[in-house]
Amino acid sequence: MAQPNQATITGGCLCGGIRYAIHTPVAAIKVCHCLQCQKAQGTAFASNIPVATGAFELIAGQSLLREYESSAGKFRAFCCHCGSPMYSRRSTRPQTLRIRAGTLDDAPAIAIAHQAFTDSHAPWWPPPAACPQFPDAAPQPPAVD
After folding, report:
1. Residues of 51-76 as b/e, b for ≥16 C-beta within 10 angstroms?
2. Residue 94, CA atoms < 13 Å, CB-side half-sphere
3. How does pLDDT run across 9-27, given as a tens digit for each residue?
4. DSSP for 2-42?
5. Whole-number pLDDT of residue 4
6. Burial class (CB in 10 A: 0-12, 13-18, 19+), 42
7. 9-120, CATH topology level
8. C-alpha to C-alpha distances, 24 to 5, 31, 51, 59, 98, nearest whole angstrom
9. Is 124 helix (H, G, I), strand (E, B) or coil?
10. Is 97 exposed, middle or buried (0-12, 13-18, 19+ CB in 10 A)?
11. Which among 2, 19, 84, 134 could disulfide-bond with 13, CB atoms 3.0 to 4.6 Å apart, if both were Cys?
């Protein structure tokens, strides 16, 4: 549980059914570009924060949490309602969960520790400097008939 004067960081899935708290300062993000992470996240990479299992508290949504064994001993947890990836864990490292950084409610400014499997990066990432950027939603193109 949280220690006195220690900030608790909360997070959850897209639908709000799964809620968690992290009762320790978070470590730097570890970015993984491997093909398995690309498939599991549906994007160019996974952004992982290692958290001690004992510092992670599942507040709500135990019945919504599902795990998929993506390779021998590696489990990826997700919400069965909205599909949000929540964390991964390895049976050989039961003391650590790898929380998906995008599931934090109010992420503190966290540094990136490193990027792994960069030779497997998605060919469209990173975007070129000339790629349009919008501070809010991108303009909608005309409807296609």
Report:
1. beeebbeeeebeebbeeeeeeeebbb
2. 1
3. 999 999 999 999 999 999 9
4. PPTT---EEEE-TTS--EEEE-SPPPPEEEE--HHHHHHHT
5. 40
6. exposed
7. 2.170.150
8. 11, 20, 8, 15, 14
9. coil
10. buried
11. 84
Token pair, residue 138, equals: 């991108």
Domain boundaries, the chain: 9-120
Which residues have CB under 8 Å from 19's CB, separation 6+? 10, 11, 12, 58, 59, 60, 61
Token pair, residue 61, equals 């949504």
Residue count of the chain, please give it.
145
Structure tokens at 98: 């790898």
Cα four-point dihedral sign 94, 95, 96, 97: positive
Q: Answer for the pair 65, 80: CB distance below 8 angstroms, yes or no.
A: yes
- Distance between CA atoms of residues 66 and 58, nearest Å: 13
Mean pLDDT of the chain: 92
Pairing verdict, β 74-79 and 65-71:
antiparallel
Q: What is the pLDDT of residues 106-138, one digit of tens each?
A: 878 889 999 999 999 999 998 898 999 999 999
Question: Strand, helix or coil at 71?
Answer: strand
